[in-house]
UniProtKB/TrEMBL annotation, chain A:
Keyword vocabulary terms for this entry: Membrane, Transmembrane, Transmembrane helix
Organism: Shinella yambaruensis
InterPro entries cross-referenced by the UniProt entry: PhaG_MnhG_YufB
Chain segments carrying region Disordered: 104-131
Underlying gene: phaG
Lineage top rank: taxon: Bacteria
TM region(s), chain numbering: 12-36, 48-68, 80-98
Protein name listed in UniProt: Potassium efflux system protein
Keyword flag Transmembrane helix: yes
From TrEMBL, chain B:
Pfam families tied to this protein: MNHE
Keywords: Cell membrane, Membrane, Transmembrane, Transmembrane helix
Cited InterPro entries: Cation_antiport_E
Compartments, as annotated in UniProt: Cell membrane
Transmembrane segments: 12-38
Its membrane topology: Multi-pass membrane protein
Protein name, per record: Na+/H+ antiporter subunit E
Family: Belongs to the CPA3 antiporters (TC 2.A.63) subunit E family.
Gene, per the UniProt record: phaE
Length: 131, 158
């Protein structure tokens, strides 16, 4: 089935909504990637891609949901699942990268990074949820 | 055989939703969900208890709104680039939550909100190190996280 052929059946209001959400989502993702390239430090740079993983994805997913719901070709669960999984998995990679960077900066004695909390070394390696 | 019936059921439903509602996929989905729940049982997670689960939609609503707002804020910082100077920095927030699931939810919330990133949690001093892109007032951020998210999470995971 060719989806593009069916796009002509879309009523005008739905086409407008779909384009609006697509442009917003794609625009936010683009802004995020520009920021990713332009921001000066690592810790600032990790903020930029979250534009793409939050409402950037959200906008594109919303457009897709409206498109396929109006055309009634299939249920919209796929997009909701994509949204949930993108949101839930982002912190995992972000924390991995951020903690690696923190560890490296502390090992190098970078003064701009807050020192490790003094008690942490005495802990018996109990993993926390945030780890 | 099924240590997590709810998880297994959701997996089967997800499998069917993604692959189509056919008997063949139902059987395949059941097999996958049984093995997946065994895998989950091997991890021995603490069973999360949600006595006030009906507050979850409220949390989701607040978070979606905040994410939208900070998306616009961060986008404007990125687009105006060098013209408007922003100052980023680290803040330490004391967190009273102890439930691992609640902490995980808070980490997802803080991280998915553009402009704030959860860096590390210290379970002994019960503090979280957060990096903020546009840091104007540290106390304001601490209050925001504590009153807007932590209080609600405390209530949900009591």
């Amino acid at each position: 089935m060719n989806v593009i052929e069916h796009a002509g059946d879309l009523p005008a209001w739905a086409a407008l909504a779909v384009s609006f959400f697509l442009v917003v989502g794609a625009g936010l993702t683009l802004t995020g990637t520009i920021g990713f390239a332009r921001l000066p430090t690592f810790y600032e740079r990790i903020h930029a891609p979250t534009l793409g993983t939050s409402w950037g994805t959200g906008g594109i997913v919303m457009a897709s949901m409206i498109f396929f719901t109006v055309l009634a070709t299939r249920p919209v669960v796929h997009e909701i699942l994509i949204g949930i999984f993108v949101t839930v998995t982002t912190p995992v990679t972000l924390m991995l990268l951020a903690r690696a960077a923190l560890h490296r900066d502390r090992a190098e004695g970078n003064p701009e990074v807050p020192a490790e909390a003094p008690l942490e070394r005495e802990a018996e390696g109990q993993p926390a949820a945030g780890d | 055989m099924l240590p997590y019936p709810l998880l297994s059921a959701s997996l089967v439903i997800m499998w069917l939703a993604l692959n189509g509602f056919t008997p063949g996929h139902f059987i395949l989905g059941c097999i996958v969900s049984v093995f997946a729940s065994w895998g989950m049982a091997a991890l021995r997670p603490v069973k999360p208890r949600l006595p006030k689960w009906y507050l979850l939609p409220k949390l989701v609503g607040i978070v979606l709104y905040d994410i939208l707002r900070s998306n616009l804020a961060v986008a404007s910082i990125l687009l105006t680039g060098g013209r408007r100077k922003h100052k980023s920095g680290f803040i330490t927030v004391p967190i009273e939550l102890e439930n691992p699931t609640a902490l995980a939810v808070l980490a997802v919330v803080i991280t998915s909100t553009p402009g704030t990133a959860w860096l590390e949690y210290n379970s002994l001093s019960k503090t979280v190190l957060i990096h903020v892109l546009d840091l104007v007032d540290e106390a304001e951020w601490q209050a925001l996280i504590k009153t807007r998210y932590e209080a609600l999470l405390m209530e949900i995971f009591k």
